[in-house]
Amino acid sequence: MPSESAKNTVPTVNRLLAALPDQDRRLIEANGDSVQLLRGTVISEPGDRLREVYFPTDSVLSLMTPPADHAGLEVRLVGNEGMIGTPLILGVEVTLLHTVVQAAGPAWRMSREQFGEALLRSDALHTLLDRYLEVLMNQGDLLVVCTRFHLVEARLARWLLMTQDRIHGDRFHVTHEGLALLLGVRRVGITKAATALQERKLIHYRRGEITVLDRMGLKAAACGCYGRAETMYDRLLGR
């Protein structure tokens, strides 16, 4: 379970919450608390009833769906640009996804009841999250194309860039097994792709620690999907 800290004002480094007018953000401050999420913590499993929402401030979470014939596939990577618990925006209380903390850090948490009350009282919050749902729909469309048509090396480069964007740093922990699960490919494919990126001096990988050495080179190696959803986010939700 998440490790709790004392209740305080909501951190404004979550981009969704920071985009709210002051009075609406104060409503969030009065109806939530800050928690420390630990890497590997499972937030929800498919079929679970959602009891809380999370707005990551300096943590990263993976949302995965487990097809019947595969261990799983990441469908969303969420950092301080987004939130966990989006079905509740539409009044749906059950999740179909497995949600796990990919990178440890703080998040702002609200109960289902607190969140529902905030949506009723804040038109600005409702409008903002409706736009966020549109961004997620666009990301989902891109994922289908990316998974079907793009090579593992390009998809891995894209994932590394997305993760770097969310952790705001150059180094993070992930194993080859974990990457294979997240990208829905065999481990040998990840090993070949990571080796190729390392040989080009774009990344350094050792014992589950990846360091991005050349971000511009990594962007050149990534498929064209990287940046499209990010551009849409900026257009709909602002920088």
Overall description:
With 239 residues, the protein is α+β, with helices and mostly antiparallel strands. The chain has two domains: 3-122, Jelly Rolls; 146-235, Winged helix-like DNA-binding domain superfamily/Winged helix DNA-binding domain (Arc Repressor Mutant, subunit A). It has helices spanning 15-18, 22-29, 112-121, 123-149, 152-167, 176-183, 187-199, 215-221, 228-237, and strands at residues 3-4, 33-37, 42-44, 52-56, 60-65, 73-78, 98-103, 105-111, 171-173, 203-206, 209-212. The strands form three sheets. It has a four-stranded antiparallel sheet with strand order 1-2-8-4. A four-stranded antiparallel sheet has the order 3-7-5-6. Helix 5 crosses helix 7, helix 5 runs antiparallel to helix 8 (215-221) and helix 6 (176-183) packs across helix 7 (187-199). The longest helix has 27 residues, at 123-149. The relative contact order is 0.14. The model is unreliable at 3-8 (pLDDT under 50).
Would you report the number of β strands?
11
The gross shape turns out to be: globular
CATH fold field value of the largest domain: Jelly Rolls
In CATH terms, the superfamily of the largest domain is: Jelly Rolls
Outline the low-pLDDT stretches. 3-8
CATH class value of the largest domain:
Mainly Beta
Estimated structural class:
alpha+beta
Helix content: 40-55%
Number of domains: 2
Q: From the alpha carbons, calculate the radius of gyration and give it in angstroms.
A: 18 Å
User: How is the largest sheet built, in terms of strand order?
Assistant: 1-2-8-4
